[in-house]
Amino acid sequence: MLKLNNIEVIYSNVILVLRGVSLEIAPGTIVALLGANGAGKSTALKSISGLLHVELGEVTDGSIEFEGERIDKKNPEEIVKRGIIQVMEGRRLFDHLTVEENLKASGYVMGDGARIRRDLDLVYGYFPRLKDLNHRVSGYLSGGEQQMVVIGSALMVHPKLVLLDEPSLGLSPRMVQEIFEIIHRINSEEKTALLLVEQNATAALGIATYGYIMENGRIVMDGPAEKLRDNEDIKEFYLGLSQVGQRKSYREVKHYRRRKRWLA
Q1: Residues 190-213: pLDDT tens digits?
Q2: What are the residue ranges of helices labelled H in 128-244?
């Protein structure tokens, strides 16, 4: 469905951010893209959605294919109409509009006002809390409720692939669990594929079928989600657990990373 073929991304013709990144997403699957801050995860999403151009970024090598056609030179509007939508980090919405106005605004992107009512019912089926809050101004919602609005807004355009950037950011553990359960339901019931960028590796690998680990602009590891969950390096660096189930200190992890890189 989606293929990134050895892509490189440069910002402002100077800063090399992605260095030969390749990944694949099959139809109807959830793929997790994990890594620390600054690893290049969000840049990978923007290279797919076409939003790199807004930030003076460019795919300078490699290619991005969606359903067999290159999209790395297309505008964001064209990419949306092909069925790819990005849910940005930070729960970006029109905070002066109500919940329902935000949802309707996304529905009109596809230029089909006749089905908006039906699409609203679909969103409210997954997020019943939003139906109760449909006339509430979005800027006054909690972080979890705003996350529901932005995911619901993505559903309004009937995407084939959703690029979901840090949906757990700033949410309580209980709300994270609720959001991830709904994401899993959407994938299962709507057959919508998702590329999920997360620092919460436990939550992401709990619903993903496959995962990639990114570090310093490169993919350093990939595999089925269950195998990544059992990998000792992943447990140590991303789940924060040592072999005996105790959290490693920052100094120990830092020393281990230096030693591992030196041996490589």
Answers
A1: 999 999 998 888 889 999 999 999
A2: 128-132, 143-155, 173-190, 201-207, 225-230, 232-237
Q: Measured between alpha carbons, how far is 196 from 150 in angstroms, rounded to an integer?
A: 14
Taking phi first (over 0 means left), then psi (-120 to 50 degrees means alpha), and beta for anything else, what does residue 128 get? alpha
pLDDT digits (tens, 9 = 90+) for 210-258: 999 988 899 988 999 988 888 777 767 665 544 444 444 434 444 444 4
Q: Which domains does the chain have, with CATH numbers?
A: 1-83+159-228 (3.40.50.300), 92-158 (no CATH), 231-264 (no CATH)
Give the total residue count for the chain: 264
Separation in Å, CA 86 to CA 93, 111, 236: 13, 18, 30
